[in-house]
Specification:
single chain; about 400 residues; alpha+beta; Butyryl-Coa Dehydrogenase, subunit A, domain 1; Butyryl-CoA Dehydrogenase, subunit A, domain 2; Butyryl-CoA Dehydrogenase, subunit A, domain 3; 3 domains; 4-stranded mixed β-sheet; 4-stranded antiparallel β-sheet; 11 helices; about 15% strand; binds flavin-adenine dinucleotide
Length: about 400
Amino acid sequence: MDFSLPDELVALRDAAARFAAGEIEPHARDWDRAARFDDAMIGKLGAQGFMGIMIPERFGGAGGDHMMFAIILEELARHDGGLALAVEGHNGLCCQHIMVAGNDEQKAKFLPPLARGEQIGSWCLTEPGSGTDAAGMRTMAVRNGDDWVINGSKQFITNGDRAGTFVVMALGAPAGGRRVIHAFVVERDTPGLLTGQPEEKLGMRSSDTVTVTLDDVRVPEANRLGAPGQAFDDVRIVLQGGRVMISAISLGLARAALEDSVKYAHERTTFGKAIINYQMIQSKIADMACQIEASRLMLYRNATALDAGDSPGHLTAVTKVFSSEMATRACLEAIQILGGYGYLREYNVERYLRDAKLCEIGEGTSEILRVLIARAVSKQLGFEAERPAS
Ligand SMILES: Cc1cc2nc3c(=O)[nH]c(=O)nc-3n(C[C@H](O)[C@H](O)[C@H](O)COP(=O)(O)OP(=O)(O)OC[C@H]3O[C@@H](n4cnc5c(N)ncnc54)[C@H](O)[C@@H]3O)c2cc1C
């Protein structure tokens, strides 16, 4: 078992780090205040191959894998969690759903502009009345000749304000007494698709989050993704990868907190000494470093399993709970190490904290993931635990 990164991944990591330091770091604080990253970033990310990381080259992508995506996301999140979330929602959710469930014709039609960064994509599952209980959605898709007519409302949609392509989940007619969920590609200019004003958020502010309303939106059968009525299975597969990527964002934010803390602790003096010399400060830094190391090992193990086609099972939930909560703790400790300055907007650690908190909520809250973990562990030990039902 070799835990070292191969040379090509080290080169990718270094290239992503250079890009993020040059193109993101100088603007991240302004984007946080303005609640929007520059539109030009989408094309710049595309030019780096970061908008089609896991899309095969024949569909315009970089032909990479989960491991490559995780490494890139850590570097982007090191400088701006919001931008990393936008790239994650685009690649990990929207493009991945088309990759997982689309046929070759759909991939050839929808993926190239997304992969090249000509447009950004969004993925619409959550609704005003259903988040954790996603199967409780109310958006309806009704078959009408060769088309489907979709009505409903989606909530908290990342990239929705400027997305060109939306993957939308909707309820179909029940079959055999069971709820049936379909997934559709809806293009921006489709009549009846409306997006709301970007939400005012605590963190991840440089990414936009909007409501998406579907009012008699008509799409052809050719835009429906996957086997009829099986979209929820595809959603589970997409979320498995998405949760690994939220862990990568958590890791990048925790690393930002650690790096800023170490730098500050060496510069700041009290009682005639740099504060790094105090064991209580060292202890905080050491705890952050230990947890970051553990989180990165879990992340790489998860990403490698996905790339090998193995199901990581409940390890993904373990990684996301651990990494996201670790990131929040690391950011809180960073604020403590910076003292009063950590509480000011002039320093970045308060932004890291606001960004990190989202990682405990998006793509599966810590609570529901703990339910999944407890159920899986019970099963491993021969016990059956109750399943949450819609
Ligand atoms: C910035 C941001 C970006 C987002 N981007 C997207 C996106 O691009 N696409 C998309 O579809 N969605 C997106 N979401 C939605 C996100 O995935 C949901 O907010 C999340 O799944 C939680 O759903 P909810 O907010 O409805 O909370 P609820 O489901 O209402 O949960 C409220 C609380 O109850 C707890 N809870 C619920 N059920 C259980 C249970 N069975 N056991 C124990 N505790 C439980 C939850 O853990 C939580 O603490 C985004 C959200 C945010 C804030």
